[in-house]
Amino acid sequence: MSSPAASTFLLRWKGTESGPFSLDEIRDRLDAGEISRLHQVQVNGRWKLLDDFTELDSEPPPPPIEAPEPIPKSRENLVPDAAIASEDSPIFELTAITRTSGLAIAALIVGLCGFIPYLNFVSWIFALILGHLALVQLDRNAALSGRWMAIAGLAMTYFVLIVGVTYGALMLYHGRSFF
Questions:
Q1: Which one is predicted more confidently, 61 or 11?
Q2: DSSP 98
Q3: Residue 89's pLDDT is what?
């Protein structure tokens, strides 16, 4: 008896026979979409569906696909808080990469400048403006982070402003100069 790869087979679709075809030709026609697994094939004088034709699937598996080279990890391509797939959640959930608001950083730095003598006379104005602009920007753009910096900058600024106004009011009340 000859091997199935060297044999030829007849195909039938809706009563119309065609062929003979070798096993490789049948595979090529399936890959090209010319025939489907619903076609019938004649094996040992009997007709059966190509889907049930086990010789068709007996070809050696294709060589494994080589994995791509790993991408070197750096701060730019890391995604924080990526959920790991498990049996409970088979789909990866990736969180968006966020960036910190520049206005929030500036509000924090200028708010800290409020503790520097003589610089605090001017810095509180800029810290208030930057802090409130940062909060508005953070509300409008969900991809930005840094709300805590904007709030911390505003809190320090309001603290320095309240202490300064209280100091000035007490000095005026007692009739002394500010400096």
A1: 11
A2: P
A3: 55
Peptide bond into 72 cis (omega under 30): no
Pairing of strands 99-100, 46-49: unpaired
* 11: β partners: 18, 41
Q: For position 158, what pLDDT does the model report?
A: 95
Report whether 150 contacts 104 (CB < 8 A). yes
The pair of structure tokens assigned to 129 is 């403006």
Q: Which residues contact 107 (CB under 8 A, 6 or more apart)?
A: 127, 130, 131, 133, 134, 149, 150, 153, 154
Q: Where does the pLDDT of residue 91 fall: very low under 50, low under 70, confident under 90, or very high at 90 and above?
A: low
Instruction: Evaluate the omega torsion of the peptide bond into residue 20 and state whether it is cis, within 30 degrees of 0.
Output: yes
| Separation CA 103–CA 134 (nearest Å) | 5
- Answer whether 108's CB lies under 8 Å from 154's CB: no
Mean pLDDT, rounded, of the chain: 78
CA distances (Å), origin 60, targets 5, 54, 64, 65: 12, 13, 11, 15
Q: Is the pTM of this model over 0.90?
A: no
> By C-alpha distance, which of 20, 18, 11 is closest to 48?
11
Beta strand 40-43 with 46-49 is: antiparallel
- List residues bridging with 9 in a β-sheet: 21
